């Protein structure tokens, strides 16, 4: 049987979770009877790089004498299968999957003995061994700990997946971590779980009083399987982190960040607005799990769960799905505004040079504009000054081209939806400079999602925006038809899918 475990389709985080499950269940089973209280400490540590060892230690209840032999029998389920231990296979299968050799040392709470047993899986398989030597030595009765050392690794935790393993473990055990019941460390780092911030805004249809977009979920399927938890809308819209995590006994079974439970019947396809904001946690304690605990075995149809959940999500007075579709964040964060101001300072001389030197060269270029696109209905350049709120920042630049004086205003705003806009200011006196206002909207979807909070990142985006604007100006001055249509289409695309971070 141990030979079969080598081929189990485990992921490192789910294999490690088998050991953490055993630790939690040991504490739940044994602490109360002995007056022990939490928190439980579980440590996972790698040594020797990719080909070294993996050690899991805990201060749970240990493995008591009456359960010791059973704990190492394959396929012998625990007396109570309603907890985290279900099939009596998890620790053994995970150990055999990870390593060729495993040493387990444990002392049970209330027992004055420490027991050690070693598994050499290749030797066990080759020789058909049925019995293993157990080494005992005295230990204080108040001790309670277990250490599992895995070596000769078959499936080591590679350095490139180290961060992924850590983040998935914190997500799998988030309930125990945030309640303070579990202190879980990975390579010396104590894992914490950061909750997504919930959207607090008025309903987009009525603009009434702001409310928190979070609701409790509680219903029972036709099979009798109970579903409880919560659903919410995240303050920041992005696909990473959206979707549901499905729990059994407070432990995530499916729905991690790289594989969220996001049925299309609820979330729609692709980068829908629902798929960027709807998230939640559902506890399905009555639903059976696969033996590797990375999926559910549905007794009722999953379709029934999806249908009922969809109804609950959009039920009044808090219709989450409708709000997710209709709500649009309009404002950049304060950090993004500060980064944009710093970026303006950083690119000031570059934009001045572009206006004073590069733009006249392009406008005076005798080669002409090249091929002209066929006529189409073109959005016009705005020629009427638009009322604006106070800009985030503004700079004015002068240049001469073809004997015409130009004044170009580069303005940062945080109003509206468009990323880039061009406004021509009519002359009030003659002679007067040809005056254009180039506005870059920090609160546009593209800027909010991609400019970041760092001035260097923001400067890159601002330079591209300024370059696009000057290109449109140059093209129009050369008589290129439909040049404003290019800007119009660009703004539409950048406020849609291209402006959303997946």
UniProtKB/TrEMBL annotation:
Gene3D superfamilies documented for this protein: Histidine kinase-like ATPase, C-terminal domain
Pfam families on file: HATPase_c_3 (PF13589)
Keywords for the protein's UniProt record, in alphabetical order: Kinase, Transferase
Molecular function GO terms recorded: kinase activity
Full protein name: Histidine kinase-, DNA gyrase B-, and HSP90-like ATPase
Species of provenance: Lentzea waywayandensis
């Amino acid at each position: 049987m141990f030979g079969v475990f080598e081929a189990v389709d485990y992921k490192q985080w789910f294999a490690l979770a088998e050991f953490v499950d055993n630790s939690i269940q040991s504490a739940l089973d044994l602490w109360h009877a002995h007056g022990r209280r939490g928190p439980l400490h579980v440590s996972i540590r790698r040594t020797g790089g990719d080909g070294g060892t993996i050690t899991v230690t805990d201060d749970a209840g240990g493995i008591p004498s009456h359960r010791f032999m059973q704990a190492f029998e394959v396929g012998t389920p625990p007396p109570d299968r309603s907890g985290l231990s279900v099939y009596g296979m998890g620790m053994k299968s995970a150990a055999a999957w990870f390593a060729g050799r495993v040493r387990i040392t444990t002392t049970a709470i209330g027992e004055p003995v420490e027991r050690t047993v070693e598994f050499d899986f290749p030797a066990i398989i080759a020789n058909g061994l049925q019995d293993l030597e157990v080494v005992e030595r005295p230990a204080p009765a108040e001790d309670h700990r277990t250490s599992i050392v895995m070596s000769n690794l078959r499936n080591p935790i590679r350095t490139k997946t180290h961060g992924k393993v850590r983040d998935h473990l914190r997500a799998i055990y988030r309930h125990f971590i945030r309640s303070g019941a579990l202190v879980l460390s990975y390579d010396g780092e104590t894992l914490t779980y950061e909750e997504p911030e919930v959207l607090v805004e008025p309903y987009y249809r009525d603009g009434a009083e702001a409310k928190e977009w979070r609701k409790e979920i509680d219903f029972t399927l036709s099979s009798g399987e109970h579903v409880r938890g919560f659903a919410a809308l995240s303050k920041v819209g992005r696909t990473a982190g959206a979707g549901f995590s499905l729990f059994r006994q407070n432990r995530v079974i499916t729905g991690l960040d790289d594989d969220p439970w996001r049925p299309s019947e609820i979330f729609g396809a692709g980068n829908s607005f629902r798929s960027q904001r709807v998230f939640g946690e559902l506890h399905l304690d009555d639903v059976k799990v696969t033996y590797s605990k990375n999926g559910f075995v549905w007794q009722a149809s999953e379709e029934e769960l999806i249908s009922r959940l969809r109804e609950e999500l959009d039920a009044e007075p808090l219709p989450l799905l409708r709000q997710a579709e209709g709500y649009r964040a309009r404002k950049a964060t304060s950090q993004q505004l500060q980064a944009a101001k710093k970026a303006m300072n950083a690119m000031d001389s570059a934009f001045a040079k572009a206006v004073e030197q590069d733009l006249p060269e392009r406008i005076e270029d005798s080669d002409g504009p090249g091929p002209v696109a066929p006529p189409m209905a073109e959005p016009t350049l705005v020629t009427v000054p638009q009322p604006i709120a106070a800009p985030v920042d503004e700079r004015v630049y002068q240049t001469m081209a073809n004997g015409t004086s130009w004044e170009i205003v580069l303005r940062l705003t945080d109003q509206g939806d468009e990323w880039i806009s061009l406004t021509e200011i009519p002359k009030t006196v003659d002679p007067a400079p040809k005056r254009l206002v180039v506005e870059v909207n920090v609160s546009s979807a593209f800027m909010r999602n991609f400019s970041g909070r760092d001035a260097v990142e923001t400067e890159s985006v601002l330079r591209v925006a300024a370059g696009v604007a000057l290109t449109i100006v140059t093209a129009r001055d050369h008589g290129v038809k439909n040049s404003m249509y290019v800007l119009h289409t660009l703004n539409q695309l950048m406020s849609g899918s291209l402006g959303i971070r997946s």
